[in-house]
Amino acid sequence: MCGIVGAVAERNITPILLEGLKRLEYRGYDSAGVAVLDDGCHLHRLRRSGKVAELEQAQQEEQLTGRLGIAHTRWATHGAPCERNAHPHFSGDDLAVVHNGIIENHEALRQQLKGLGYTFLSDTDTEVIVHLLHHKLGELGDLTVALKSAVKELHGAYGLAVVSAKQPDRLLAARSGSPLVIGLGLGENFLASDQLALRQVTDRFMYLEEGDIAEIRRDSVKIWDVDGQAVERESVQYHEGAEAADKGEYRHFMLKEIHEQPKVVQRTLEGRLGDHQVLVQAFGPQAAELFAKVRNVQIVACGTSYHAGMVARYWLEELAGIPCQVEVASEFRYRKVVVQPDTLFVTISQSGETADSLAALRNAKSRTEGEGRYLASLAICNVGISSLVRESDLTLLTQAGPEIGVASTKAFTTQLVGLLLLTLSLGQVRGTLAPALEAELIDELRRLPTRLGEALAMDTTVEKISEHFAEKHHTLFLGRGAQYPVAMEGALKLKEISYIHAEAYPAGELKHGPLALVDADMPVVTVAPNNELLEKLKSNLQEVRARGGELIVFADREAGIENGEGTFIVSMPHIHDVLAPILYTIPLQLLSYYVAVLRGTDVDQPRNLAKSVTVE
């Protein structure tokens, strides 16, 4: 979740570190800090609770300069958000560490290090790392050797950056379960937890793999793998335009990303559709052979990605005729699972570094034949160099591009598109999907970006409706069938960024309890495509009207639902029922955005949340 930036150069790197932290603000954080080594080989540190702007103000007063340094934005896991718990952490006055992740055996290490005479000044798990490394450095004399020894005693997840006043020519890094990328320059090199932090200084990157340790100097990079062997990691050029980190004409990144959805959905479809069918090889060269054997699907994901998986369950069972289970990764990884024969294990993640999803995948891949093996693993992900992608047998990369707003929007719709492509591919290969229906859906997918554009054109209408929520504290979302997960996603978005308590229910469940909550102060938001469940849904809406509830209904223009007292209808473009969950997501995203703006919350960086959840 946290952000790391590091640099070693012949120029003053403090502005680079601070700019990198600003570019990582989208990840969510509660404090920030920087440590630089000056020309006299003295290590100086600044830390502030709150935003990077607070740290920048302190830097203007202190004027730290140096050619080697590290910086960090922290999202609290151990210890309250305050300056003494902010990174970097020191041991003595000559060794500094920043850390993403969680050290699970920190308590045992803390007691061991106290016994060696170390004093702890924070409540963090990270401080054990810097003291352990200091101890190892005293024994072994070389910082790189000391880091290789120290990480062997760390249990948990970590992305580390290290600098020492005693060896001022190098920046060290170590990765286990938390991503790190090296930025390559001319006579200077950089380190970050996300390449976006370094786009102002380089477009060439080298991605550390699980277990890697790196020694980064101005003119060289050395990497050792988990077995201690020297290795070469491929350097790649990053082509994504700088505009990805710029709001452009939009007030917030979230609004920009909502409006990017026609474009990114088009990109996700490109090269994957034939004349009348999905190109199955888009999932990998082995996909057709593996898909022919699939008899069950297990989907594991978190948050918004979990809602995408729930929609996919309806598609997989209805269109491909394949039983599907969907489970939250944090629950799945800790229970005993009975694996059905020939099960495809599917993980969904925007970042590909989500800790619970990654752990679930690794647990699934570790199962022996006697316990019941999964047939294969598939990742649907937005980041091609992520751990989830590298560790899965098959991959479908969504093409959402960088998503800066914490509340996921375009990542969700591209995930849905990817899952529909998976459904059609499985149905095609297994012969359970009629060719005529597949051809029809391919045509509908080609028109989908246009339909999404039509939904976005309702922007002003949705903004007006958002005024009904300005003073409200609770909201119900209703949907039936595949629209129920869409209602769940709408409720999640509203609570994430407006801080209004929101719940979602299958509309038919309303009379089994939630109806007790309905009154004039409880808006009820409903998605109503024109399908076989429409008449049932209309009956549910009458139940709300009869209790004096306020209804906001996003309804197909052919649905026959009319405005009335306490009922506000937003007319939606007509679309094939299979694709309706993708389309009906758009107005719910717009609604949550405009409600949040009215309430004056921090839309792009909602409180207590982080973009990429890389800790348990």
UniProtKB/TrEMBL annotation:
List of catalytic residues: C2 (nucleophile), K611 (for fru-6p isomerization activity)
EC number annotated for this UniProt entry: 2.6.1.16
Top EC category: transferase
Gene coding for it: glmS
High-level lineage: Bacteria, Pseudomonadati, Pseudomonadota, Gammaproteobacteria, Pseudomonadales
Residues annotated as transmembrane: none
GO cellular-component term (any): cytosol
Physiological role: Catalyzes the first step in hexosamine metabolism, converting fructose-6P into glucosamine-6P using glutamine as a nitrogen source.
Name the record gives this protein: Glutamine--fructose-6-phosphate aminotransferase [isomerizing]
Record carries keyword Cytoplasm: yes
PROSITE patterns: GATASE_TYPE_2 (PS51278), SIS (PS51464)
HAMAP family according to UniProt: GlmS (MF_00164)
Organism expressing this protein natively: Stutzerimonas zhaodongensis
Classification via Pfam families: GATase_6, SIS
Assembly mode: Homodimer.
Xref: InterPro entries: GATase_2_dom, GFAT, GFAT_N, GlmS/AgaS_SIS, GlmS/FrlB_SIS, Ntn_hydrolases_N, SIS_dom, SIS_dom_sf
GO biological process: amino sugar biosynthetic process; carbohydrate metabolic process; fructose 6-phosphate metabolic process; protein N-linked glycosylation; UDP-N-acetylglucosamine metabolic process
One Gene Ontology term of the molecular function aspect: glutamine-fructose-6-phosphate transaminase (isomerizing) activity
Domain Glutamine amidotransferase type-2: 2-219
Catalysed reactions, semicolon-separated: D-fructose 6-phosphate + L-glutamine = D-glucosamine 6-phosphate + L-glutamate
Statement: the UniProt record of this protein carries the keyword Signal: no
Protein location: Cytoplasm
Domain SIS, first and last residues per copy: 287-432, 465-606
Gene3D superfamilies hit by this protein: Glucose-6-phosphate isomerase like protein, domain 1 (3.40.50.10490), Glutamine Phosphoribosylpyrophosphate, subunit 1, domain 1 (3.60.20.10)
UniProt keyword terms in alphabetical order: Aminotransferase, Cytoplasm, Glutamine amidotransferase, Repeat, Transferase
